[in-house]
Design goal:
single chain; Arc Repressor Mutant, subunit A; 3 strands; 75% helix
Length: 224
């Protein structure tokens, strides 16, 4: 029971820390002290340490000797960006192909709800909420795919993509394009045009990659 309690606490702390890293509360390079976090969350250092190890596995935290846990810098290396998006292009259409034919009314209702909240976040200029809803929308597309290992990988890829997307949205107006493309994915799935939906999804991911690489190129030029 004690081990279960620690795992439950650790999962809750992972969620809180991940959100704080993604929304910029904890900026890249910030030190995450176990004792301070334990005091802030009202827990011992054990679940905090477990949470930091999980975030290290997700690439959001680096464990540095003599320094402890530090929020990882966002790599602007195009090779790494391409690696993330190559995997997404490979895995996500595969999951959609298995998931979409099994959609019921509840699944479409969830997609419609996420999409409506997505539109509201765009109108409010709420990038933090937009990032989470973007990931929620994609995972809702794959909810019926019986591919648990692939789902775990895609969740991690979407978390990494979220950090890149925030950089992308800081200098572009891609939110409106994403909203329209998400709407089109729902239309195709609802019409049973699964192959078309999978091809459209791949183009959607590729378009995000292309825009991001353009932004990263400008960012890199500005910093030199």
């Amino acid at each position: 029971m004690s081990a279960l309690k620690h795992r439950t606490l650790s999962a809750a702390i992972v969620d809180q820390l991940r959100k704080s890293i993604l929304d910029g509360t904890f900026k890249a390079g910030a030190q995450l002290r176990q004792d301070a976090l334990g005091e802030a969350y009202g827990v011992s250092r054990i679940p905090v340490r477990e949470a930091l190890f999980q975030l290290e596995a997700e690439g959001l935290v680096r464990i540095v000797p003599q320094k402890g846990a530090i929020v990882a810098e966002l790599s602007l290396d195009q090779t790494e960006i391409n690696d993330v998006f190559d995997l997404r292009c490979l895995l996500e259409p595969r999951m959609l192909a298995q998931s979409a034919p099994r959609f019921g009314d509840d699944d479409f209702a969830r997609l419609d709800d996420i999409h409506a909240r997505f539109e509201q976040a765009i109108m409010a200029g709420n990038v933090s909420e937009w990032g989470q809803l973007n990931a929620d929308f994609h995972m809702a597309l794959y909810v019926r795919a019986e591919q648990p290992r692939t789902q775990a990988i895609v969740v991690s890829l979407l978390q990494t993509s979220d950090r890149y997307t925030r950089l992308q949205l800081s200098t572009t107006t891609s939110m409106g394009i994403a909203e329209k493309e998400h709407a089109e994915l729902i239309v195709l799935c609802r019409a049973g045009k699964i192959e078309d939906a999978c091809r459209f999804l791949q183009r959607h991911i590729e378009a995000v990659r292309t825009d991001l690489l353009r932004v990263v190129g400008r960012t890199g030029s500005a910093s030199t």
